[in-house]
Amino acid sequence: MRFIGAILITSLLAALVGCATSPLGRHQFMLVSDAEMDKMGVEAFDQIKTQQKVSSDSSKNAYVVCVANAITAALPPEQAGNWEVRVFEDETANAFALPGRKIGVHTGLLGVAKNQDQLATVIGHEVGHVLARHSAERVSDSLAIQGVEVAGGALIGAVGNPSSPLHGLALGALGLGAQGVVLKFSRTHESEADLLGLDLMARAGFDPRQSVPLWQNMDAAAKGQRPPEFLSTHPSPDTRIKDLQKRIPQTLPAAEQARAGGRNPRCR
């Protein structure tokens, strides 16, 4: 009976909060508001800044901010605006973006992304996760699976309450692993972010063709330690590259139009 009740309450929450559609037309189940996820993103970013060393290298910071600003300037008006960008001293080739307009880039990525277009590939991908509300979707799916027995307003309040277990769940969706919870992006999310990032970098005036050598570099940097695709939430390098190659011809006109309109980034 509790299981049936949980299903009924989850269905009621879905009706109250509603379903959404990703920028690529995929239906999404949402139980958490954008405002709450933005609050979580800001909190998570502040936490990261206390735990990881922020780079003081002015040239690296200027380079990353230049690329990131070009990407975010190409976002829809409701997502554009001032994004906080930080470079973290970390040897891993990684970057992330969070709801609340936050972007972090590890210094290790700068040795793998060989030029501004390759760096734009990664930043565009990470911003694509935010644009598609993937973190909110992860939280919503997890809440539905657990059959959280709270009403709509209480659910949103609980997620935003630091003393609530749901707060840790939401932070886990942002990749912090709070309270031992880490919710990974699915392969669907990763593939969607790849395509959205490709569109973004093209609209920003970067060369989308550079996405292919970027992921080839990333694969080489992994030194053969990547797990098989069916065991990973990330698409295999071959699958990722094939999907990008299919979409690149659709994005080249947007890149040409962006450059013709004055969007021609020169980040060094």
Keywords:
mainly alpha; three-stranded mixed β-sheet; 5 strands; 55% helix; globular
Element layout with pairings:
Elements: H1 2-17, E1 19-21, E2 27-29, H2 34-51, H3 58-73, E3 84-88, E4 95-98, E5 102-106, H4 116-131, H5 134-146, H6 152-159, H7 165-173, H8 187-203, H9 211-221, H10 237-260
Parallel strand pairs: 3-5
Antiparallel strand pairs: 1-2, 4-5
In words, what does this structure look like?
It is globular, with a radius of gyration of 19 Å. The chain has a domain of 173 residues. The strands form 2 sheets. It has a 3-stranded mixed beta sheet. Strands 1-2 form a two-stranded antiparallel sheet. The protein is built from 10 helices and 5 strands. Helix 4 crosses helix 8 and helix 5 packs across helix 7. Strand 1 and strand 2 form a beta hairpin. With 268 residues, the chain is mainly α. The longest helix has 24 residues.
- The fraction of residues in strands falls at 5-15%
Major beta sheet, strand line-up: 3-5-4
Secondary-structure element string = HEEHHEEEHHHHHHH
Tell me the radius of gyration: 19 Å
- Residue stretches low in confidence (pLDDT < 50, at least 5 long) are 1-16, 148-155, 177-182
By DSSP, the count of extended strands is: 5
What sort of overall outline do the alpha carbons produce when their principal axes are compared? Answer: globular
Distance between the termini: 62 Å
